[in-house]
Amino acid sequence: MVKFHHETVLLNEAVDGLNINPNGIYVDCTLGGGGHSEKILQQLDKGHLYSFDQDQVAIEYNQEHLKKYISAGKVSFIRDNFKNISEALDELDVTSVDGIIYDLGVSSPQFDDASRGFSYQHNARLDMRMDQRNSLDAWQIVNNWPYNKLVKIFFRYGEEKFSKQVARAIENNREKSSIDTTEELVEVIKQGIPAAARRHGGHPAKKVFQALRIAVNDELGALETSLESAIDLIGVNGRICVITFQSLEDRLVKTMFKEKTIIMNLPHNLPVIPPEMQPKYKLVSRKPILPSGEELEENHRSHSAKLRIIQRISN
């Protein structure tokens, strides 16, 4: 059996937020270690769960971990990027669902497996692909992308204020020899960040590694595409639960949910709002749901987690 230890964040809060119908159809867009999928399956009677993951390791692990639910015909695994949720479900004649859950970010095994090249704490070839079938990896970005493009992704996806200096350090070093490993990249990043700044705010490579991971996997673009599809897929009373771990993702989810739950461009002094202008969705909670104090103590990866939930209220 493939080893895949992963502590699921906001497990109860997210699944409870779906308000499970035992006979409903649900989608887990981020199967990972199967924590949310298993919790959903435990509550299904005649319902069905479709679980997405682009990582073959996650699929293989859960084929064993959740095999009793496979035997019962309650779960289907789909190896695909969740941005293709509509097309993948349409091929299975699924056009409406009762709930969709997202647990964003990199799973613990991807971080902990040094060979995947996600972590600045393990030395490995620069990779960071969630789907090993994809051609673009972190090595290609670091060694081939132009200075201006590196600055853009480091600032936009990593919010690294020394983006220019880090990009210049990469450019200078790769002219001498390629930057092949995570360890080599960490040393180059340190060259671009002033010594005083390196003494504060965590590991100096954290923001650049985050930016590279997002760029390699087109995480924000995939999330936006997937959420647009998910919002259309859920039926009346259906819900979408999204757990984010970084400000860029949370801001995107918050904005997209807001656009669906308020009346845009409402005419001034309109005495009565006609039914066709009423929002078709509502926020289940105005503020994001955060991990409990107990979870924060037990799982350090939960510290930046936020859960947002939206519900469809009409067609």
TrEMBL record:
Q: What Pfam families does the annotation carry?
A: Methyltransf_5
One Gene Ontology BP term is: methylation
Show the catalytic activity.
cytidine(1402) in 16S rRNA + S-adenosyl-L-methionine = N(4)-methylcytidine(1402) in 16S rRNA + S-adenosyl-L-homocysteine + H(+)
Q: Which GO terms describe its molecular function?
A: methyltransferase activity
EC?
2.1.1.199
On the tree of life, the source organism's domain of life is Bacteria
- The residues the record assigns to binding S-adenosyl-L-methionine are G34, G35, H36, D53, F82, D103, Q110
Q: Which UniProt keywords apply?
A: Cytoplasm, Methyltransferase, rRNA processing, S-adenosyl-L-methionine, Transferase
Enumerate the InterPro entries for this protein: RsmH, SAM-dep_MeTrfase_MraW_recog, SAM-dependent_MTases_sf
Q: Which compartment or compartments is the protein found in? A: Cytoplasm
Q: What is its main location?
A: cytoplasm
Q: What does this protein do?
A: Specifically methylates the N4 position of cytidine in position 1402 (C1402) of 16S rRNA.
NCBIfam families documented for this protein = 16S rRNA (cytosine(1402)-N(4))-methyltransferase RsmH
The similarity annotation says:
Belongs to the methyltransferase superfamily. RsmH family.
Kindly give the PANTHER family that the UniProt entry links to this protein: 12S RRNA N4-METHYLCYTIDINE METHYLTRANSFERASE (PTHR11265:SF0), S-ADENOSYL-METHYLTRANSFERASE MRAW (PTHR11265)
- Name of the protein in its database record: Ribosomal RNA small subunit methyltransferase H
Source species, please?
A: Apilactobacillus apisilvae
